[in-house]
Every structure is written in C-alpha cells, then in structure tokens.
Specification:
Layout: H1 3-17, E1 24-26, H2 30-33, E2 37-43, H3 53-66, E3 76-79, H4 83-95, E4 99-104, H5 109-117, E5 121-125, H6 131-142, E6 145-146, H7 149-156, H8 165-172, E7 183-185, H9 192-204, E8 209-215, H10 220-226, E9 257-261, H11 263-277, H12 283-302, E10 306-312, H13 326-333, H14 337-347
Parallel strand pairs: 2-10, 3-4, 3-6, 4-5, 7-8, 7-10, 8-9
Antiparallel strand pairs: 1-2
Helix pairs in contact: 3-4, 3-7, 4-5, 7-9, 11-12, 11-14
Length: about 350
C-alpha cells in the first residue's frame, strides 16, 4: 500500500478510537409517557466537530481514500451549508490537506469561523443552487477532489452495521421500555443518514418506520409523493436540512412517511426543546422535535404505545445571532404566536 495512504487511514482510525459513542437522551415528557409513549434523542452534538455530520465526513474521507480519489497533497472541495464542511475541514487538517468549502453567503458566521479554525477556506456564493458547479470547478482548477456529499453520502456508510448510527441507536435502546421504536425521525440534508437508517431497519427486520420531516422550500417531500427527480425548489431556510433539488443520496423508497414542517414550527420547537434540556439546540433539531410531537399526538389519539427516536443534530450556540435571536426570527419568519399555541397544545 502507498505509505501516505496507509498513514492517512491510520490517522482516521486513531481519531475514531479516541471518540466515545454519543449519548441517548430520554426526553422528560410525562404527558406522553403516561400514555406509554417515550421520546428519545441521540445527541450528535458531542462529536469533536459538534454535529451529526462528523460521522458523514469520516465516511466520505474513508470512501474517497479507499477509491484512490484522494492523494497526498490533494485539495479537498465540498459543497456544504456548514456542518459537513466544518467536519470535513477537521479531517482535512488531520491529514494535512487543503480544504475549500463552497457555501451560500447567508451561512451562519459561526460555522464559517469554525471552518477557518480548522484551516479551511470558505468560498461564498449568492444562492444555494450555485454550490455544486462552483465546487466542481474549484476541484478541477486545483487538481483536487470534490467530495460531493450529496451523491456519495448514501453509499459511503456501511448500512448493515459496523457501528453506524442506526446500529448504535438500536443498541442503546435495548433496555428501554419500548426497545424497538415505532418511528425513527430523520430529516434529510443529503439523505444519507435516512438511507442508512431505513436500510438497517429492513436488514434487521424491525417493525419500525422512518419518518423524514421536510422544511419549507425543500423538494424532498414533493419528490417522495411524485417520484419526479427533476423537481426544483427555493431551498430551505432551516440550515443543514432540505434541498432545492433532488439529491442522489436521498432514497425515497426507504422512507415510510414525509412530514412537511413549517419553518416557524421548527424554530418554536427548537426553543421549547432547548428549555426542556436546559441547553440550546439547533434549528434542524427543532424540525425533528416538531415531527416527533406530531407522531406522538397521533399515537396517543389512536391509543398506541411505543417509542419515537431521533437525533439532536448540533448545539444551538452556532445559531445565537440568528435562530435563537427573537428580532432575527421576527424579521425572517414572522410572528411566532400561532406556532407557539400549536406547540403548547401538543405538550399539554
């Protein structure tokens, strides 16, 4: 084996061995628990780079290295709204490689600062739809490698096991009241994690269904209904999830249900969950929580018991000047009163 490649693989493996598994949090929601319905979040914010995308970045690097796409000195380029780029910048620095993130200009300054902290460069574009072509062009110009998370996310992770997120989630649920979840809720950015979870569930023959909550402006829900891969949309305002086009890694046939979640509901749910946990979470976690509450209400109305499992994607400190700032929310999404009333009704 090429000595540099062998060393690169060893460094990633050593980094993995230094990291413990992430925690499973049981949400204190007695109004549902008394009806036999339990809600859980796997806390992915505790990864070294602070988000669920740390797993994806590791898998993408290993996949590209094993395919011979990354060599010593290769410039790594990615199209990313933030968290994937932060994690890929971390692994690029680990291997001593240059990294360029192509992202929309309105990406949170906190994420841009984190990419820079890990030695990455940020190439900003005016609209999310420009990131793909710009990333490809930069990779070609530098003689480097375009990671292309939106194509390779669903195939870079071994969905059968190998301690992927699905296997970890189900192992941690083993001693809970309802160890096999009724639902796993997993929003889609690339679609890679929902594909991994859906495939793992079927491989293990679990009686669990996958629900993907989709924010406004994303095309995934419409694609799930129609199967039309040519659909385009405005793009999501919930950072990190939803897409303006159908991505190759989103596998609609492993998704049992889509739930379209209004942006304001995601923000209000984010605030409520932050208060419930005593620490701030990000907006995509709010989208997850809003969908979990909808499913829990439906189960309660039908007299069903069981568990609902999802992920805490990242910490809310990255979003203090935006999604956690009342004035910014008012300017961006409008009044929260009606959404807050819906959430209060769900929790009561």
């Amino acid at each position: 084996m090429n000595p540099w490649l062998s060393q690169a693989m060893a460094r990633i493996e050593a980094d993995y061995q230094r990291s413990a598994d992430t925690h499973l949090i049981a949400l204190p929601l007695p109004r549902f628990a008394e009806h036999g319905i339990d809600l859980y979040l796997k806390d992915e914010s505790t990864h070294p780079t602070g988000s669920l995308k740390h797993r994806l970045a590791r898998s993408l690097f290993l996949y590209a290295l094993c395919n011979g796409w990354i060599r010593e000195g290769s410039t790594i380029v990615e199209a990313s709204s933030g968290s994937t780029a932060v994690s890929e910048a971390y692994f690029a620095r680990l291997l001593g490689l240059p990294f360029i993130a192509v992202m929309a200009r309105d990406t949170s300054p906190e994420k841009i600062a984190q990419i820079s902290f890990y030695g990455g460069q940020c190439h900003l574009v005016d609209t999310p739809s420009q990131v793909y072509d710009q990333a490809q062009a930069l990779a070609q110009a530098s003689g480097g490698h375009y990671m292309d998370q939106f194509t390779y996310a669903e195939r870079a992770t071994d969905w059968r096991g190998n301690n992927n997120i699905a296997q970890s989630m189900f192992s941690q649920m083993a001693h809970e009241r309802h160890p096999i979840p009724r639902w796993v809720v997993m929003a889609a950015g690339t679609g890679g994690t929902s594909a991994t979870v859906g495939r793992y569930i079927r491989y293990q023959r679990y009686a669990t269904e996958v629900c993907v909550p989709d924010p406004q402006g994303s095309v995934f829900a419409a694609y799930h209904r129609s199967g039309d891969a040519s659909l385009v949309g405005q793009g999501s305002r919930i950072e990190g999830i939803g897409r303006p086009r159908v991505e190759a890694s989103f596998i609609r046939t492993v998704v049992d249900r889509m739930l379209e979640v209004p942006d304001i509901d995601s923000v209000v749910a984010m605030r409520a969950l932050s208060a419930l946990l005593g620490r701030k979470v990000g907006p995509s976690t709010g989208t997850h929580f809003a969908a979990m509450l909808t499913l829990a209400q439906e189960m309660r109305a039908r007299g069903e018991q069981g568990s609902i499992l999802s992920v805490l994607c990242d910490a809310g400190e990255r979003y203090l000047p935006s999604y956690h700032h009342p004035d910014w929310v008012q300017r961006t999404f409008g009044d929260c009163t009606a959404a807050q009333a819906r959430l209060d009704a769900a929790l009561a």
